From TrEMBL:
This is FecR protein domain-containing protein. Signal peptide: none annotated. It comes from the Bacteria. The chain crosses the membrane at residues 80-100. Pfam families: Laminin_G_3 (PF13385). Keywords: Membrane, Transmembrane, Transmembrane helix. PANTHER family: PERIPLASMIC SIGNAL SENSOR AND SIGMA FACTOR ACTIVATOR FECR-RELATED (PTHR30273), PROTEIN FECR (PTHR30273:SF2). GO terms for molecular function: sigma factor antagonist activity. InterPro entries: ConA-like_dom_sf, Ferrdict_sens_TM.
Amino acid sequence: MNQPLESRIQAMLDGTITETEFHHLEDELAANPEARQIYYEYAALHQGLEFRLSRASKTASGLGLAESRLLRQRSRSRRVALISAAALVLISLITMRLFFTPEVVVDDSLSFETAPGTLFTLTHNEANENPKAMQMDIESRLQISQGTVELNFASGVSAIIQGPADITLHDHDRLYMGFGTGWFNVPQKAIGFTVVTRELNIVDLGTEFGVISDPGKDDEVHVFKGKVRVEALHGVKKETTLTANQAVLVRPYGRFQVVDNNPPVFQKTLPKTLPHMHWSFDSRDDLLASNTIITAANLHHQLHSSSKPSQADLTSGPFGKALALDGISNYLETDWAGILGDRPRTVAFWLKMPNRRAPELMPHQQHTVVGWGTQQSGHSSNLSINSKWTIHFDYAENKPPILNMSYGGFWYYTRETELDDNAWHHVAVTYSGESDHAGNPVTRLFIDGQAHKIHPASHPPVRTHEDGQVMIDTMEKTPLVIGATLSREGQELIAPNQFLQAKIDELYIIEGVINEDSIRQLMTKNQLTH
């Protein structure tokens, strides 16, 4: 309670305020919104009490009724005059302040920049007639199909959003994330900055934190510095406060579950390329040259072969060494689930195959170069489910191996090429995450730097979305394997005795689609550029 302020207000209402106190009150009301609110409440209370008392009281003195009313009316007139005068002065002061004080404009927009290879769509509120490039205004929506974006708020908040993601700016300090992975750094002056997901309301209390929102999983919050307040939006709607090094996920019923804090999952700066892993096969000690895929940050791999201990058989390749697979027992396995769902992807590699047209390979042998996901059972009625991603060969007697790019029940194949000629060929396959006019997944094949014709095929009925587009949903089961075929059996990860005989070099797995120029750069210079 502000006693001097309330005393001055009471004195003014009672008509006992001095000129000096009146000027003090006048200044405080002009400068302080809270003081004005207190003044309004006192004035309303005073007026209400006076009205009730005037109705309830019967003249207790010897004065006549008319004279009593006249005295009350005079007293009330003096007080109303004082209140009116104070209000008039207050309005005049506020008007003068508005006239002489420069207008304070709150910048509700935020600017953003993108990492190389990023693809996005930016839409604005219809009321925004002149939107600026690379800037979000209130109710602007940014949809990132691949790559990474840096957000810079006028308040000083910065964020790194990893695609795929869908975000909308609801206010200058309030961001909605439909899905995506985001890292947020909030300065002290921007405390209260809020991130909302489908499942959580996250209020910053001066901190650095990360948010993971995936439609197929429970949303997560990871705090690295300071603290945040987290509220579940569904179920029992629990609320908690997290501090540094704490992390939780929210269950569908609205309660929190503690998880390990995992800083490596979040990008804190814009990367120079799309997230990718590069298998160079130049060293037996480390076949993997580089890896910037966040979900594969803790990747482990193992080579299987008949030798004890297993050791990579390396040979000369287009760039340094290459991995030689004997087609009998050796293959490379990892513990990374791969690029899942309908997320865009590119796989590129060098391949050298011997002649593979012998009758013993027919009719149902299949040899995979690269693959991951869930291979549906051959006896299942769900053959149309597209839950895997493989680049593999099928065989036909006295014909070149048929290269397939398979999602499961739907795939593409090519017959217009010969890859088993014991020569090095560069192969690249891209999937954009989109559908063409026929509803088929947009997939492209490049052989030796040139676009190559492919043909669609499927096991009917093809599972589609409501709009008729083929549904692609690569699911987690067999992690990334090189040279081994995914098993159709529920308890097996790979099929026995179905191993690729070939040499492989410079394998790139990229989270996103790259264009023809970038593919040629991979082929000619072994460099990923955008």
